[in-house]
Amino acid sequence: MTQDTYNHIKQLIEDSGIIHSNGSSKKVFQSFDFSEETILITGAAGSIGSGLAEHILACDYKKLILIDIAESALYNLIKAFENEDLTKIECLPLSINDVESVEFLFETYKPTLIFHAAAYKHVPLMEAHPYEAVKTNLFATKLLADLAIKYHAKKFIFISTDKAVNPISVMGITKYIAENYIMQHAQKSDTQFIITRFGNIIGSNGSVLPVFKKQIDHGLPLTITSKTIARYFIDKHKACHLILKIATFNKSEGSVFTFNMGKPIKLIDLANCFIDLYASKHEKIAIKITGLRPGEKHTEDLISKNETLVATDHKDILLVKQNKEIPFKNTNWDSLLNITPYLSPQEIKQLLLSYI
């Protein structure tokens, strides 16, 4: 690993707050003007959802609606925001898979700006339980997008992933199909649909850094799947800032964006740097190679072979532009409705593969 690579990884680890998370210094966020917006965040208790909410609290906004199915995490979010103006904030324990509840939400609050961050993201877990990925990543996304149009929302920002590019996992395929549906809406709807596609949030719940920290704390070897496996990483607050910046873009500026995250980072380099920063100098920490898990790739891509990255006026935001117009593959939603928990994971994945 070069010194530049080491310094980049070191900065990412420090920015994650995993090592020093006393919260003594308050972050300063850029303020955006959302004073006319009723803002809805799905998956609001997750890493990106809570980060977006934290940033929006520093902005002018009309109303903020935070929904999540994770009760304890949502309660923690409420406690974190209890010193804010709670007359402008609603926190609802709500499943985006519940059609009646979601319709009631739109009818009651009529959100004008929607950040759809809720999703099942754990690749091996969704390989084993693909039905849940279909329900949440596909049908709930379709429901939210359709209601955004029905209730005349101004903008709908879909939080996607690099795993939707050339997907091989259930998680990636469901996000790819959802991206296709969003892009079809973007071409013909008065509601502005935007996709933000980026890599792993460093230090987020379920990510590798908290695992490394726990392994060191318990005197265990650090586990990585391969010496060559690499991932794109981005700091949560940087990602949230860029998402909000994109939310201010107009329709002519594009529909699909990604971020400047530098080169992919090898997990073995991340592990060695974390050991250097966190472990005692007297400890000898082993690194154990466990092998790729179901659905994992060695490296991820930000764009497909039919896409090109184009610079925007913001140095860290890149437009994803198609090289040539290719008709979208129509999704047979009636066929997807035939996916039930009684089908095997292999049968469900085979059905999903027919849409890429």
What would you note in describing this structure?
38% of the residues lie in helices and 20% in strands. The chain is of the alpha/beta class. Helix 7 links the parallel strand 5 (155-161) and strand 6 (192-198). The longest helix has 21 residues, at 130-150. The radius of gyration is 20 Å and the shape is globular.
Percent of residues in helices comes to 25-40%
Q: For this entry, what is the oligomeric state of its chains? A: single chain
CATH architectural name of one domain: 3-Layer(aba) Sandwich
Q: Quick one: CATH superfamily of one domain? A: NAD(P)-binding Rossmann-like Domain
Key words describing this protein structure:
single chain, 356 residues, alpha/beta, Rossmann fold, two-stranded parallel sheet
Task: Describe, in short, the structure shown.
This protein is α/β, with parallel strands linked by helices. It has helices spanning 3-16, 47-56, 71-80, 99-109, 123-128, 130-150, 170-188, 208-217, 236-246, 267-278, 333-336, 345-353, and strands at residues 33-42, 60-68, 89-93, 113-116, 155-161, 192-198, 200-201, 222-224, 230-231, 233-234, 256-259, 265-266, 287-289, 307-311, 317-322. The chain contains twelve helices and 15 strands.
